[in-house]
Specification:
Blueprint lengths: L10 H8 L1 H14 L5 H22 L2 H6 L9 H11 L17 H29 L17 H13 L5 H25 L10
Helix pairs in contact: 1-8, 2-8, 3-5, 3-6, 3-8, 6-7, 6-8
Length: 204
């Protein structure tokens, strides 16, 4: 998709608009995998989440990103995902390839952070499902789905404000969108591996 017609949109709105189809396909994939069908099935979901958070962890600790998003370091969920796996008695998954995060240039990395941070909004529904169907909560087994301390909406609003205040030129914004698309695809691949699906899905 070209950027023609989107030049007046904020960066956050561009990201939402231009990744909507990928987001929808990823949601359908998650639903089809029935992660709350059993604790074992949920453990596979958390394992994929852990590997994705492992990818983005270097970004949360990076100075250039922190300069744009002052509370970035406190937003990481890698430790929470690791604790969830321990709660569930699931060994830490062995990565099949190198982490994707190190070395990402700043525009693309913002796209990855957009996907990671945006998933916290949908995690409200997932946390409810984990509680009702599996007896898990933000203190045991579903820590990585917990709301930020000041609420999901407030944390997301601050992140969006940081994105839109980044002052990126159109070409840089294109690269942020490309990063977000790559992140959505990466999580789909990690899910497929965790659930032992044949092949690696494409959200394109």
């Amino acid at each position: 998709m070209t950027t023609q017609g989107f030049t007046q949109l904020s960066l956050a709105l561009r990201l939402k608009t231009e990744t909507a189809a990928l987001h929808e396909r990823l949601d359908k994939l998650v639903t089809a995998l029935d992660p709350f069908g059993s604790r074992a099935n949920y453990g596979r979901f958390v394992a994929a989440q852990y590997l994705f958070q492992r990818d983005v962890e270097p970004l949360y600790a990076s100075g250039p990103y922190a300069a744009l998003i002052p509370d970035l370091a406190g937003r990481s969920r890698l430790a929470a995902a690791e604790a969830d796996l321990r709660d569930l008695g699931v060994p830490l998954p062995v990565p099949q390839d190198a982490s994707q995060g190190p070395g990402l240039p700043l525009p693309e990395g913002l796209g990855w952070l957009y996907v990671s941070e945006g998933s916290k909004l949908g995690a409200a529904f997932l946390l409810k499902e984990a509680g009702q169907r599996l007896g898990l909560d933000e203190h045991f087994g579903a820590r990585s789905l917990a709301s930020p301390a000041d609420g999901r909406g407030a944390a997301w609003k601050r992140f969006v404000q940081a994105l839109d205040g980044s002052g990126m030129a159109e070409e840089e914004q294109d690269r942020v969108v490309a990063g977000a698309r790559a992140a959505f695809q990466r999580f789909a691949v990690l899910l497929a591996r965790s659930y032992d699906l044949d092949g690696e899905p494409s959200l394109a």
